[in-house]
Fold this sequence. Notes:
With 477 residues, this protein is an alpha/beta fold. It has helices spanning 38-56, 60-76, 78-89, 93-114, 152-163, 177-190, 204-213, 226-239, 261-273, 290-306, 325-341, 374-377, 393-401, 416-425, 464-467, and strands at residues 3-4, 6-8, 11-13, 17-22, 25-34, 120-123, 129-137, 140-144, 167-171, 197-199, 219-223, 242-246, 251-255, 283-289, 344-347, 351-352, 360-361, 364-367, 384-390, 405-406, 408-412, 430-433, 449-450, 453-454, 468-476. The protein folds into two domains: 3-247 and 452-476, Aldehyde Dehydrogenase, Chain A, domain 1 (3-Layer(aba) Sandwich); 251-433, Aldehyde Dehydrogenase, Chain A, domain 2. The strands form seven sheets. The chain has a seven-stranded mixed sheet with strand order 15-18-19-14-13-21-22, sandwiched between helices. A six-stranded mixed sheet has the order 10-9-8-11-12-24, with helices on both faces. Strands 1-5-4 form a three-stranded mixed sheet, with helices on one face. Helix 3 (78-89) packs across helix 4, helix 3 (78-89) runs antiparallel to helix 6 (177-190) and helix 9 crosses helix 10 (290-306). The longest helix is centred in the first third of the chain and has 22 residues, at 93-114. The protein starts with a strand and ends with a strand.
Amino acid sequence: MTMHKNFIAGEWTGADAIENRNPSDTNDVVGLYARGTPEDMKAAIAAAKAAFPAWSRSGILERHAILRKASDEIMARKDELAALLAREEGKVLPEALGETVRAGQIFDFFAGECLRLAGEVLPSARPNIGVEITREPIGPVGLITPWNFPIAIPAWKIAPALCYGNTVVFKPAELVPGCAWAIVDILDRAGLPKGVINLVMGKGSVIGQAMLDSPDLAGISFTGSVGTGKRIAVASVEHGRKYQLEMGGKNPFVVLDDADLDVAVNAAVNSSFFSTGQRCTASSRLIVTEGIHDRFVSAVTERLHALKVDNALKTGTDIGPVVDERQLAQDMDYIEIGRKEGANLAFGGERLNRETPGFYLQPALFTEVDNQMRIAREEIFGPVATVIRVKDYEEALSVANDTPFGLSSGIATTSLKQATHFRRNAEAGMVMVNLPTAGVDFHVPFGGRKASSFGSREQGRYAAEFFTVVKTQYTLA
């Protein structure tokens, strides 16, 4: 079996390897991927530092051509890459294909942004003086990505970093090295100079600290857990570098009495259970007013009965497996916690057996949940949702905002007044009306508030806020 090595200073390197296994079929080894060391990480950072002066001053047409070529290859190979994504992460093929296309769109968008780099020319308050305001790359950056979106999240970090002239040290999640390796291979063949992008795969506990300890990284962009995000923040403050953190959510989806029931159920089921609930934008708290509560629960339960949980590569599968044994154990622990807290397990929550050995879990729906229960406060990151009964809109809004997180928030209603009020008063970075809380376009900002996010937004033109620094220049005429 081919050994997929780390990529440092333009060379594929590494001797030690780990197996990448398919969560839909644990007998299926996706490939062998390098297991990096702290020394590998230090070498990658040194390579990115050495490559920065030349790349930061490279021409916009060169950057545009490379990013556009990468986009074109991703699109041309979208079926192949989607199958790889489904095998290593467990996301069903239609979702994997959608994510892969999104990655291609992101590279295409930032290829265009290379040609739209702009600044400002302003008059000075003093005579005969000109003022020019420009943006410049910040330097070598560390990018740490999670396992749940193994091609889209790397794309929305790597593409803007390169677009704005930064060099990259990329550390993907250990569970999903395949998509990460493929992206770097594509960029290498697209013509990136040596050292501009560097890939170090392996356990975060082994190689992550070497990244945090380095004084040579100008910034770290991270998506993952709250605990790890806090460690990155502390280490970054010590080194005086920029940091950008995306750290999860406990997202509410409010259903009012006047909601279209089909619209509400479709949005809730999609938000809560698709992608096996393994999305930071998933709706794990369904906040439902009394007049529609029973009909909503009945309709959601009926829909869950009809969903097919099976191998992610099978046609007709609605929900694939949980990503690995550890995450499955965490999901099962929270289901037991919910039972002990007094919530009613209205549907599911059982481990399932399928034709191939994998980490299959029946979606779980809890009712009679209080917003102070652990299953309503803590991020589970699995196909587990809670229904919280409330009296009216005012209580629904209060409960929706009563969370330490603030990534995404949604409402189902036919009232323009309530929808407008909710959009303005929901304490979240993204708000959806009659739509799933998960699902953001590739060209708009992504991010949250409270414990969900720290720093500037990702994606779209807002990515420039992190990957560039503003320079103000004066000239005497």
